[in-house]
Amino acid sequence: MHLNLTPLARLAVATCMCLAQPAFAQEVSLTTNDGEMALAGELIEFTNGFYIMRTDIGQVQVPASLVSCSGAACPVGGQAALDFTIKGSDTIGAELMPLLVRGYAESQRAVVENQTVGERQHVLTVIGDEGIGDTLFTTLIEDHGSSTGFRGLLDLSTQIGMSSRRIKSAEVTALAEAGLGDALSFEQEHGIAVDGLLVVVHPDNPVDALTEKQISDLLSGKVSNWSQLGGADLPVTVYTRDGNSGTFATVAGKFLDPFDASLAAQARIVAGNSEMSESVFGDPGGIGYVGFAFRGDNKPLGLISSCGIAAEASTFAAKTGEYPLQRTLFLYTTNAELPARAQGLLAYAKSPAADGVIEKSGFIGFNIDSRELARSAQSIRAQIDTNESRQELAALRELYIDMLEWRRLSPTFRFQTGSSNLDNASRRDLLRLTSYLTNDPDISEVALVGFTDADGAFDANRTLGYARAEAVLGSISSQVAGSSFDPANVQIKSYGELNPVACNSEFAGQRLNRRVEVWVR
Questions:
Q1: Residue 395, φ and ψ in degrees, nearest 5
Q2: Which pTM does this prediction carry?
Q3: Cα–Cα distance for residue pair 389/454, rounded to 1 Å
């Protein structure tokens, strides 16, 4: 065996497999596509686009998309069997990812053939010229949970990882130490859609809204009968996802971890969103959690924060990041160059062209939405009647009048912690917004409105809000240079700590409150 590999390449071949060896294993040589590295050994099996080999370093698997095969035992055309693989979240992989592949194929005048090859494994073959031409690419989608996507990126068994949660720090570190880049960079972390999670109960359950602590007590088993919360005399049945699920990680991070609580030992584990929805609907005492797309006929519970702010379970609030149970659906890549068709698919998934596909799947796209501010204005009006601070009272009156005259767009800008740089979600929104502003003739006025958390003096916070709005304007100006849109006409406003969207007593809430909104009229 000849082996002269970098640490990155060693990951590609060092994934041990426990497979039975066939009787007629033969020697082959695998060479990376750049021709710089080679691996020789006995070919045991070629399956689902992977070479399974016995080598001096043990039994390994190598993605066919990364290498070419030479030797009598090489399968005919085997190296082209899979151009790339996609692994991870079942929330994305069950329906959304196949539809994105189909949408991308249609944009290329191609059709998709879908073949089930294993448990939650599908091979999609994209054929050009509307199905009568050559194969453009073949990809494997495997959806066993978000964690499996990150493991696939690490051992190079996948080129695109699907996750219904943001990558964990340990996973970021593992990829970085393996020479696979910074998974938190804008180039490797790709938000493609929003999934609002709903806490659901049986439609006959009389309970309508609960605080986060009450939901925590239900999920942890501290509350075991609905009568303890004003409901019927029925035992509580908790339905949940397994530990690999990004959906569970989101729910635990919101309702269990903050209260040092653990999931009830008697909780019933279900395999996916559909099974969760069906289980709750079939159980009058049931409680579970599903994406917006899987609500079915169940009743979603209203969410009340610890400081009394009522959550708005709307697609607009999910797009702005202000619905407490919204989560971004991500695709992750490494710093390795993707095959051309994988790059095309990724670009399509992040583009406005994919918005219809995303909505068809029941998720929320990043297409720009708007809403009137009159409802929020009524809350501000109530505060005017009770506020005794002269400074705040004047600002509240100004904000109230503005809210009656402007409407808000969904792009909302926030910054990396401790930095003046926009976070990844805001960089994505920036691209969408600048395209919107340069192509919508109905917009006559635009305002960037800064808000802050409640730490510090009111005047200082209002000044900080102005500075943040100015920073966003600078980013917009650099993007629209040469277009018909004139950034000089954008108004800059700030209302500091007024109109919080989350609790200032919590770090996550403070971060949500530190924002720049986009208003138009």
A1: -70, -40
A2: 0.76
A3: 15
